[in-house]
Amino acid sequence: QEKSSRLSAALFGEDCEISHDQLYELLKYAALGKFHNAPPPSWCRIYHPSHLAGVVVIVLHGMSQLHFYKFYLQFKRLRKTFRHRFSLPPSADFLAGLYGEGANPKPQNTARGLTSASSECVPKSSDLQHDPIILKYGEKKRGLTSYTLTLEEQKKNYYPIKGFPACKGYVYTECDQQRTDSSPLFGLDCEMCLTAKGNEVTRVSLVDAQGQCLLNELVKPESTVVNYRTRFSGITKKMLHPVKTRLSDIQTRLKKMLPRDAVLVGHSLNADLQALEMIHPSVIDTSLLFARNEGRRFKLKFLAKAVLGKEIQCEQKLGHDPAEDARAALELAQFFIEQGPAKVAELNLEMLLTTEKLAEVSQNKAALQPQRCRVQKQLNEPPHLPKPCFLDCLQVTGQKPLLLGRQELDSSGLCQSNLSTSNKQILQRALEDVPLSTFSIVQFSLGPEYIASHLLAGLCEKVRSKLTDMLTIYAGPFEENFCLKSVRKEFGTCGPIQSLTVVTETYQPYVCIQYEVLEAAQLAVENLNGAEVAGSCIKVQRPVTAALLDCDILIKELELDVENEGVIYVAGLKKSLTEMDLQEEFSQLKDLETLFLPKDLQSGKHRNCCFLKFQKPQSAVDALEVINGWTVKGRKVRSRNALASGHLWRWIWQMNHSSGKQGGADTREKMEQLSDTEQDLRKKVKQLDHHIKKLYRTLQKNTLCVVLFPGVN
Which residues form the RRM domain (predicted)? Predict the structure, then answer.
């Protein structure tokens, strides 16, 4: 049987947001990996990549996830064809980088220029003002205390914090003495293996400010090792067999070794401290110190080479050396403190990284010049090279990319604007040319009249209003002195409640309940309508509004959405249950693939519901029959087919917690003005959905196809 390429991305629930780098990773690997050994993406897997026939990126200019869910029913073919769905953070640079907008260099010249480290173009001081390092720290030199993470930064980056419930049982280093710019620095790094418990430490290294190794110890995990991760950790079963040292021994030794004013330095040190189950109040994280835009981070290996001129994590070695990594992170922090932000920014690390990547693509093995020694002699002459784009990389490898729509490539390889072309003309050209190209970008557009800010504000308010109505149910009538606590308890078994209010305008009291997830509201309508609650036989219904006239159709389509295939929703759980507790509870269910336990994205607290994803849709159907009526840790649970298990779950939460939730007179006026435009927009969306269907049908088998909704920003 012929093998076929397919994409597997095991992201679920709140993990359905990917960075621009991750999407870039996927596209680059799919387009170049087969010929030029581009690294595979870290967040997903392409099966049988050698069978990939090509890559097609369809861009819907002016459209965002707001349009996708507002016109969900109109995007009939799109949502049924594409199995994976992800959010991208807003950015003006991603598409520009893909197209090469701005500088318009000829790809041939760009590629030749990048093979040597030219220092003719020195970054101007005005350019440095926008460097993320300068924006974060300013230009002046500071002492080390200016670069330690604040408590808020530690929380944001998941550092273990003293007093947090999640850190119960963690060991505190008790280094409480006031830090000064003379406080001692210590480099820390750990290697981990995967055990039945999760990530557990198998090796720990600590180095002092002079680079002397104070601790380099193997550690025996408490749980059974599932994967030694030898390629990265360097740890083997044979190495750990005679080891007697346990995590508690290491914790005790580290507490004794660290002075009361010690500052720990590491690269993504939060992972090391979590694995060590230790809390330390003062840290410098080099992955955050060398700041980049949009939350991206430089790898330690790159920084060591570009800044220090040191090769670490060499492929010839078996796994990483934690002492080497700890020393590299420490020296990077020392370099940053000694030289100051302005000198670090002048290194132009972003450009160096781009140069290195393009050099790999063109198989140019010229090493990056060590920067530390050059900084001492020529601090004002760092290399500054033209920034290559993805299309340049393709042309370097001899592939001619196809670019159709708002930007097109002319005969000389320049990227030119072409705003007059209609969507129909673009489709006709795409149907002819895309099947002949290995990498294509096809751009359709809504048109400027549909992306005005007042129209988008009106659309946004309409979607938010409809979602709120779908999450809301009315229940009653109740007796005059009914027990509100009983009502909350009964309706809480359907899922997390956002608000509950008593309606007193009616002859007998009713309650209005707004849930946090769609499944909870639907369960309440299906299971509690006609039930006896708080001594009354009640009716449960959603609000009757024009926007909800198609609610039943929408619910049915969401159930059938490919993203919800094989996924069920379970409610009525204790909030104290962890994912590990639930994994154990549901372990007997056949073909259970993964479990997602939603939490409040602000407080981090778990909700009383979860989603279960099964390998086969039939296994999910069978599980529903088994689970309904189950008792989990003393509580009876309810379940149904999922409606918003993946990307939509996070998006609903964001819509409900975004600013401007209550629409004023101005917003209502915008919504009223939207009526005629919305009809035109609905037709436009149907046409675009049809265009995508026609184009998709012409693609060769084993083509990776990505549809982007970039929004107006």
Answer: 471-545, 566-644
